[in-house]
Fold:
Amino acid sequence: MTMRVRSILFGALGFAALAAIAPWLPPWLVSLATIAFANALVVLGLIILWRAGLVPFGQALFYAIGAYAVALIGRYTPIRDVFAVILVGAVAAGIVAYLIGFLLARYREIFFAMLSLAMSMILYGILVKTETLGSTDGFHVEAGSFFGYRPDGEMWNLAIYWLVLGFSAVLAWLVSLYFGSVAGSLGNPIRDNEIRVEFLGLSVDRLIHLKLVISGVLAGIGGALAALAVQHVDPAMSYWTTSGGFVFVTILAGAGSVAAAFVGSLAFELVRSFAVDLVPGTWQMILGTALLLTILFLPEGLGSLATRLRRQPKALPDAQPKAPS
Amino acid sequence: MLTVFAIVTDGLVYAAYLFLVAVGLTLIFGVMRILNVAHGSFYAFGAYGAATAAGIWFDRGWPDAGGFLLMALFAMAIGLVLGAVLERGILRFVYGRDEVVVVLVTYAAFLILEDVIVLIWGPRSYAAYQPMVAAGSVDIGDLTLSNYDIGLVLLAAAVAVLARWALKYTRYGRLLTVVIFDREAAAAYGINVTLVYTVTFIIGAMLGALGGAVMAPKISVTLGIGVEVIVLAFAVVAIGGMGSVEGALIGSLIVGLSRAAAVHLVPQLELFVIYAVMALVLGFRPYGLFSQIQPRKI
Structure:
């Protein structure tokens, strides 16, 4: 069995197990995991870009577009089906990503980070100043239906949780397929040396444009799911600190694997809820310290701990010089 | 006509504020290639420090001029300490890493410093209105201008001239220019690059804190003031071209005037217009108005 098939199997098993235990989990944990996995989809998009050396400091732009798309459909149309509204959120985010991609794909490094930040701040400015979009308060998101089935109360939370898990599983699989493809595996070469990639006859700008659209769609779906789960949208979803949070999880988790996005995002939400409970007022300090320590001592993220442990036993025999027999 | 005049004066005051904040950011970037997110913290610490100093001084009824001086000096002292701690304590360990990684390090420092502010000053907000009152105002035609605002514009102009003069004509400024141009060659010629980095970072931090100090009387000094400033200063610096003092000046004038125009003509667009201008400029000049051409590395 190849490594790839094995990790896909493990992933599928993991998601199935998470789905199966939900009814026995306390409701707060289910809600927390719902948000964590919805955000993990955004992080998945960031990993795609991070592999090419790009850090968008404005990914909340697409997150908010996905969320507001869902909220607006609930408000102005009779469409309530969650799959339909999420599709609209994803398409809306994808279109915006495609359009601003023409500008963004020309930039690298800090300029890329800043310009994407500026884009998200434009949306933030619009949302805050637009009364019909709820201004700073945002507005309520209507509960949805699943092909006509309308769960409510406790059941709604579970249904949304399963929905998020389903989307996570499928999208994680698709992203791992993308990483295996030519366009996806060119991420690291772009990071290392763009000009060599261009000498292969490929357009780096177009590869990055594609990555932007994929990550935009992922963030749009994440935002749409988060809006359905929280049943509220507000401009803070597009603020740069939200983007900073996504970047934070990406750095913490590392870009090594698709699974890292989900584990990292879950760990982030858990630590946050405990920190806010136990040591209120120092949450940002904990966050900053963790980020700093990760960058200084674990440059590949927490995910690299797992690979290090896995590789060590293998590496040992090689390290021993073999005596000539 | 009145509106035009109001736009120009408001724009100039806002531009002065932006320039004072952005000049430290662009200086640090120009020399060290560090986009310093913690600059927002320097600003916030400066504002808090100045508010504290104003509280101490003016409550005792001592002469006003000394109060202005104390506010600025107190803030700059805070900037000096913070800058030194950050550069020596954290940043020097990540020199040579990816530029984006260094941004994240400063972002981490910013997050930590945000909570340090709460620990020192608590969650309440401070008002340092006394200097505004003490400075008084002057009537020009139908418009009343605060002397404090006029002083702000003059201060920004003085900093701009001083920065340009220091970079062009002083020994340290020339050393900086060499380090900006080629760090390794500078080191090979015996320039102490580490020292230049430390000094530059501290000067940048002090400028950021000064920006906060002079703004303290005009705003409510409260939590989260650093956040807005970073994003605005980034926009200014990006428009002007990162690392260029002239760029920061032009960038802050453009942003200041266009924001003032938006506020007076179409207030809904206030926040939007700044970033729209930035996107527009970058659409034509991808690396800002005063950017230098960067060779591509093979």
Remarks:
- The longest helix of chain A spans residues 154-180.
